[in-house]
Structures are given as structure tokens and as C-alpha cells.
Design a protein that fits this description.
two-stranded antiparallel sheet, alpha/beta, about 45% helix, four-stranded parallel β-sheet, 2 domains, 6 strands, globular, Dna Topoisomerase Vi A Subunit, Chain: A, domain 2, Helicase, Ruva Protein, domain 3
């Protein structure tokens, strides 16, 4: 059976979201049309405003409506620390730990030459410029523990080699509450090599 043109268009539009296949998009569309039209209209309005008004923070490239995000604008942050992450969602992950009080720089991805993503696309020259101009004492590279994340971390360390800044990498290893028998070999090897005194 064919859906009406507008219902089909709604289903197709919902498929742009990550992890949403044809069946999930269909369920969402029918839920909105059958049970929550007010919610759908609110969603449409907020989505339109967000697409129009949200941009990147001037300093860290986080998503915000203002010129500076709330973290960069805060006077309570340690400006000698700069944490480099791949994506805006990574900032939220680090913030939820409540253990970091410095500033951020969001790369918006990782090095991927096959996809045409090099240092300029990630803003690494802007990062080097920011480190030089702001007196950052330690740069913490918090890219993902993937091949691309490791390559990006290595490139950043090399780009800052001539600068008077300590470059560190977040530790990777066994998650809190995890059991060793369920941890993969690479994670366990990294945890062993990154061990510290207790």
C-alpha cells in the first residue's frame, strides 16, 4: 500500500536521523500524526528555530545561540586547561563527570583522509592559534580510542610540539563496574600499559 505523498515525505524526512530506518521512521510519523499533533507542531517550531539560530561558539566551536557558549563565557572555568574533543556531544559527556573545570575545543570530527577530512577541516590551525594566544598550560586530547581518534591525537601532539604546552591524552581502559572477563583484549592491553601506582 502506498502512503499519501505528504505522509511518505514525512517518513522520508525522519529517516535522516541516525539509527532511524524505514520502519522506525514510519512508526514515528504515525505516532505524531495519530497521537501527538501538538507535540509534532512544537517539535517543528523548535527544529526550525534551532536550524536558524544555533551556530558554533567563537572560541570552542560548541553549539550555541550566542557568540560564546556558556562554558567559554563563564569566569569560573580554569583557562589554563583545554580539552580537545571530537564532537559537541563529547563535551556533555565530559561535563557529566563533574571532574573537569577547564575549557574545550571541538574538532567536529577526526582525521579521515579518505573522506577528505584533514587538519584544516577539523580546525587544528585554529586550535594551535588559540593555544598560542591564550596561555593554555595543558591540552588534554580526549578523542575517541579508535584508529582515527588516535591519529588525530598524534597529529595534534605534533602540531603543538614547538609550543610551551603540556599535551596529555585521556586514559582508556576497563570501565568502572566492568568485569575483566567481558573486556576485549585491546582495552585490557591499554589498561595494563596505562596502569598507575595506588
Amino acid at each position: 500500500m502506498q502512503f499519501s505523498p505528504l505522509v511518505s515525505e514525512l517518513v522520508d524526512a525522519l529517516r535522516i536521523l541516525p539509527g532511524v530506518g524505514p520502519k522506525s521512521a514510519q512508526r514515528m510519523a504515525f505516532h505524531l500524526l495519530e497521537r501527538n499533533r501538538d507535540g509534532a507542531l512544537k517539535l517543528a517550531g523548535v527544529l526550525e528555530r534551532a536550524m536558524r539560530d544555533v551556530r558554533h561558539c567563537r572560541d570552542c566551536r560548541m553549539l550555541t545561540e550566542a557568540e560564546l557558549c556558556s562554558i567559554c563565557a563563564s569566569q569560573n572555568r580554569d583557562r589554563s586547561l583545554l580539552c580537545v574533543v571530537e564532537n559537541p556531544v563529547d563535551v556533555f559527556a565530559v561535563e557529566q563527570s563533574s571532574s573537569y573545570r577547564g575549557l574545550y575545543f571541538v574538532l567536529m570530527g577526526h582525521l579521515s583522509p579518505l573522506d577528505g577530512i584533514g587538519p584544516n577541516e577539523l580546525g587544528i590551525p585554529l586550535l594551535v592559534e588559540r593555544v598560542a594566544a591564550t596561555g593554555v598550560k595543558e591540552l588534554i586530547v580526549a578523542t575517541n580510542p579508535t584508529v582515527e581518534g588516535e591519529a588525530t591525537a598524534h597529529y595534534i601532539r605534533e602540531a603543538l610540539r614547538e609550543r610551551a604546552v603540556a599535551v596529555s591524552r585521556i586514559a582508556h581502559g576497563v570501565p568502572m563496574g566492568g568485569e575483566l572477563e567481558f573486556v576485549d583484549g585491546n582495552t585490557l592491553a591499554r589498561a595494563l600499559s596505562g596502569r598507575r601506582s595506588i
